[in-house]
Amino acid sequence: MDIIDVVIIALYIALTLFVGVWVSKKASKGLDSYFLGGNSIKWYYLGLSNGSGMFDVSGTAWMVGILFLYGVKSFMFMWMWPIWNQIFVMVFLAVWIRRSNIMTGSEWILTRFGDDKAGRASHLIVAIFAIVASVGFIAYFFEGVGKFMTVILPWDVSLVIGDTVLLTAAQSYALIIIFLTTIYTIKGGMYSVVATEVLQYLIMVLAGILVAVYAFVTISDAELTALIPTEWKNVFFGNELNGFWDGKLATFNDLIDTQGYKMFGAFIGMTLLKGFFASVAGPTPSYDMQRILSTRTVKDAAYMSGFTNLVLFIPRYLLIAGVVVIGLVYIAPEMAASGSVTSNDLEIVLPKVINFHVPVGIKGLLLAGLLAAFMSTFSAFVNSGPAYIVNDIYKKYFKPEASDRHYVKASHLASFFVVTLGVIMGFFAESINSITLWITSALYGGYVAANFLKWVWWRFNGWGYFWGMLAGLIIATLQFLMDNNKDNFIDGTLLYELAHIPAIYLFPIIFVGSLLGCFLGTYLTPATNMKTLKSFYSNVRPWGWWKPVYRELKNEDSTFTSNKSFGMDMLNCAIGIVWQSSMILMPIFFMVRDYPKAFVWTAVFAVTSGILKFTWLDKVKKYKN
């Protein structure tokens, strides 16, 4: 690395630590200040922070790899997360969630199911899920940033005693970056997280623009036209995903055949099914929900969620597409010449481009930007996970009466605990892809059923929620253990076959298992008391099957009306998904110089933005707070 790049990175880290610690005094006032910023942070700062938190380095490396191999169709792979969730949150869920005026997602559950045994069981299971999800994401970041830094940085920081390697270079780099990020996150809570993430977002956008400009200037239209197959730029697909690479790059077809997405029609069908239910289920109890709960008003919650979509996708995919263009021209021929390409090769396309094909100065800024992407997402989870340990478990069940200072100190310890568990899990992870699939398909798959039903069905109770979530967590954990031990099973046995099924195709099994737990738990126990249901329904005002509760409220107040916005909300969600897709496809087509398609998707973006202004934004402006 050139000294200029090293200085840029060092300055970025020093500035981030300074800003994080500088604002930390505001976090010491109590749990509300520590985890929600005292509900005083403006919505556009929270939106930038939320977008920055989703701009992670592990996910960026994964997206670079799949766009590199599959072309523009790969944007649909993102539906596994599902990214539509951001649209559903923008359209109606942010408003429903913010009306609760509480601190965490699991505390919110008590407003739905009450504070009796059933309510506390549901409250406890969602807190456990939040902690497990935070640990899983920290493992995901640990695996991604270590692999990334090893390729980029020239120093061997592995820890070796005698002939025994205690820590590889990747693990050592990951631990150093995680330690630095944990310091300012624990010190400053939500204030430090938001302040540093706004700074990090600006650095990421600058890095993305510089890489895109460099790729655009140094690589000609003719080079890309000769290299990229026509099918690579085709959004449409059939039942099967057939290899489209030819000539010297035909080796990539073998990888397409073995990655588990060959039955592309079935894969997209599964992601559509999962995407809808997961999106209606709402955000998982993590940093995304914390941003919603941190807003000042219901109106601000909607604004923040919409702004997150706007600031995230275009700059992120400008960076991703720029890196992919450079990778296709300079790295693809080298990879194909090796005769064999693996998933791990795709995961290091990003660091290889930075290391060997980006000029001095831009390299330092890009590395600082990707470090920012890692640190912002990591800090978001380090802030959100401990909130559930301290507020929803420790404070509620073990020490309900203590000083604010005591709870803030407990939050510091909880943060270290969550980070330590995540790092341990990261040591045993096979790859970024394996953790990605586990989180998106198995862990989130177990979350969907119970959290979909909690919004739309009045009879669904706390025990149904508890058993539905527990069933999903158990199946997701079993899937993770089987996937990590799949080579130990005997070929031809049922366990061997199950272990080798791609995680996304197991979603129906996980969903049905969780749904069974929901129905059995609900029908074998009494309904939630009507007082709790009336309070929840009159405050949150969801649509769905709430007729008995609505009837009771109508008898008490003849002016009370039900939520009749289901049709308009679903229409806005459909328009929003197209709007979101246009923000992904615009920069990709622009960077690969397919100008007609870039123009088409720019027009789609403009039209859908105009429609959402009238069908969604004008409605939000009418909210009283």
UniProtKB/TrEMBL annotation:
PROSITE patterns: NA_SOLUT_SYMP_3. GO terms for biological process: proline transport. It is a multi-pass membrane protein. One of its GO terms (molecular function) is L-proline transmembrane transporter activity. The lineage of its organism: Bacteria, Pseudomonadati, Bacteroidota, Flavobacteriia, Flavobacteriales. It catalyses: L-proline(in) + Na(+)(in) = L-proline(out) + Na(+)(out). It is found in: Cell membrane. GO terms for cellular component: plasma membrane. Keywords: Cell membrane, Ion transport, Membrane, Sodium, Sodium transport, Symport, Transmembrane, Transmembrane helix, Transport. CDD domains: SLC5sbd_u1. This is Na+/proline symporter. The chain crosses the membrane at residues 6-23, 43-70, 76-97, 118-142, 165-186, 198-217, 263-281, 302-332, 365-389, 410-429, 435-453, 465-482, 502-524, 570-592, 598-617. It comes from Zhouia amylolytica. Belongs to the sodium:solute symporter (SSF) (TC 2.A.21) family.
